[in-house]
Amino acid sequence: MKSLIQSVPDGPKAIGPYSLGVVAEGRFIFVSGMTPFDPATGKIERGSVSGQTTLVLENIKKVLKASGASLSDVVSCRVYLSNLTPETFQEMNEVYSRYFGDSPPARATLGAQLLGFDVEIECVAALSEKNPSL
What we know:
Blueprint lengths: L1 E4 L15 E4 L3 E7 L2 E2 L4 E2 L4 H18 L7 E8 L4 H15 L5 E6 L7 E8 L8
Parallel strand pairs: 6-7
Antiparallel strand pairs: 1-2, 2-3, 3-8, 4-5, 6-8
Helix pairs in contact: 1-2
């Protein structure tokens, strides 16, 4: 059984045929690749890698919250950078480490051809029994 998260309050919108997140068997939330979409402007925002990473992680937080989870529940992330260099990796990593603190999830970081932005992150979080069912 799965529950789909199609929208979140003040959050990103799906810009294609996908769900923002899917709760599987009430045990995990799979968050789609989030982009630097700014819900306030309704646009993908370009700018620094650190600024884009911040916006992406804020969007992830909103999708997680809709399932009753938070960043502390994330067990795995995939980070995609359009121009993977030591500099862009460091810039992303500085922001990422502020969000995940002392207990970061497992992670892979990949260089990828992205369309009109530089950072995309997808993740999986474990849901505890205290989290509400969708």
